[in-house]
């Protein structure tokens, strides 16, 4: 029977650590505060926003909501970010993406104060990840996948990891973080031939395809550690990962479930980043 | 008998293309000009400088040398770069590295005009490579290794490539460029276990270890394509790559020699970047 890596348990431990840090900051007169900037009223965004506000409240991080119409101009959005950048009561800024098509995303992400960029949008923060420099912020989903591995007692040094995703929000930053931990990393994608050969010969497989139950047990061995970042709906409308959990769980060494796996950790990474931003502002780090 | 990938032949073709572009630019009144900034008189730097000046002269690119003492301060170097940034007669700036230890390299690389950064030092240009955006400049050695593959009639799409190097001047940028070409990329390094298993199961192997003749034929198959970026001296003081060429050449599909392989292409990439910088200045691209 394979072990299930409990994302909620890991998230709870991270939360406990955050609570302590927030307490320390508040005692020093610094109030960690997240500005959430949402354009339009996409139900997914609203639901995510609610869960962030609830989680922030749980750990005593303040939140401030800034909601604008979807037809806001790039210039107006830049001005708002400029105000939030200057506002010393704001520690970090989370701008929901994807942005509307008429917005110049490159101008916007360059407009965020580097030290408030808790979602790691700014090219200079992303470049730090490329270099293996963790003095900035880390992309939340990539870091959550890494934490799922590191918090399961797995020693990454010398392991082989297949990362099935090459995006800037998951696969590429994750690959760089794995390299910093001395893993040997194979980056796979839709054009990869014989994916099964690669997953079967890797110690750890991280999948972020967004195709429900795509991977069955044939893709793994009894020694595989499977980190499932994918979230989509299966044919019955049920939330599912990239991996057919029922088929796989008893045929691998460890696996993260969906829900209750990497996704549970992701928002905690955002909160960690808010605390880090507040510490930067307070010149404590 | 394996094929030898002729770096000099590839370099000559690139040079012919550069000559045409330089001619076009000069006709329009734009003179591609490379500023070479050297600190101290390291014999390696001086020798590299001479070879660059010779090659620039071959393709009708102008060069200007700026030589300073090794004890120049970070601030003074920033001022010099500031002047070169402003100087409209300079298309691109090449600053020899490694810099003396007392220089703040991070400040320096952020001081170079993004559009004159022909050696791809600036974090914002490196971040573009991370994203797969080639509107900036490419690191010369990484691009040279890519060109060695692309100019040998090898279709990268769907191929597996092992890159044995995780530095910011070779391995990481190269891995990103290979991904943009739809290759499946494994990044290996000193902590990688069972390197032989990985090299033997990859279609293409790019080595940049700097250990003379480290790889013998046991690391490859008859179908391997071997790109040797390493340059060091063997025990007899002879220039050698990471691969034991004599042992390997007849047991693989293709291989680049050292010298006469990737190294021959590298300086051509620098010249391509100077032409690109001149075109940016002339608003032709």
From TrEMBL, chains A, B:
**Reaction catalysis annotation:** (6R)-5,10-methylene-5,6,7,8-tetrahydrofolate + NADP(+) = (6R)-5,10-methenyltetrahydrofolate + NADPH; (6R)-5,10-methenyltetrahydrofolate + H2O = (6R)-10-formyltetrahydrofolate + H(+)
Any idea which positions bind NADP(+)? 165-167, 231
Supply the InterPro entries for this chain. Aminoacid_DH-like_N_sf, NAD(P)-bd_dom_sf, THF_DH/CycHdrlase, THF_DH/CycHdrlase_cat_dom, THF_DH/CycHdrlase_NAD-bd_dom
**Record keywords: Oxidoreductase included?**
yes
Family matches, as SUPFAM superfamilies? Aminoacid dehydrogenase-like, N-terminal domain, NAD(P)-binding Rossmann-fold domains
Q: Which pathway, per its entry?
A: One-carbon metabolism; tetrahydrofolate interconversion
**Record keyword ATP-binding present:** no
Q: Would you tell me the Gene Ontology cellular component terms?
A: cytosol
List, for all copies, the residue spans of the domain called Tetrahydrofolate dehydrogenase/cyclohydrolase NAD(P)-binding. Answer: 139-280
GO MF, any single term: methenyltetrahydrofolate cyclohydrolase activity
Keywords assigned: Amino-acid biosynthesis, Histidine biosynthesis, Hydrolase, Methionine biosynthesis, Multifunctional enzyme, NADP, One-carbon metabolism, Oxidoreductase, Purine biosynthesis
Q: Name one GO biological process term.
A: purine nucleotide biosynthetic process
Q: What is its EC number?
A: 1.5.1.5, 3.5.4.9
Residues of the Tetrahydrofolate dehydrogenase/cyclohydrolase catalytic domain: 5-119
As for what it does, the entry says: Catalyzes the oxidation of 5,10-methylenetetrahydrofolate to 5,10-methenyltetrahydrofolate and then the hydrolysis of 5,10-methenyltetrahydrofolate to 10-formyltetrahydrofolate.
PANTHER family linked: C-1-TETRAHYDROFOLATE SYNTHASE, CYTOPLASMIC (PTHR48099:SF5), C-1-TETRAHYDROFOLATE SYNTHASE, CYTOPLASMIC-RELATED (PTHR48099)
Give the family this protein belongs to, as stated in its UniProt record: Belongs to the tetrahydrofolate dehydrogenase/cyclohydrolase family.
Q: Which HAMAP family match?
A: THF_DHG_CYH
Q: How does it assemble?
A: Homodimer.
Official protein name in the record: Bifunctional protein FolD
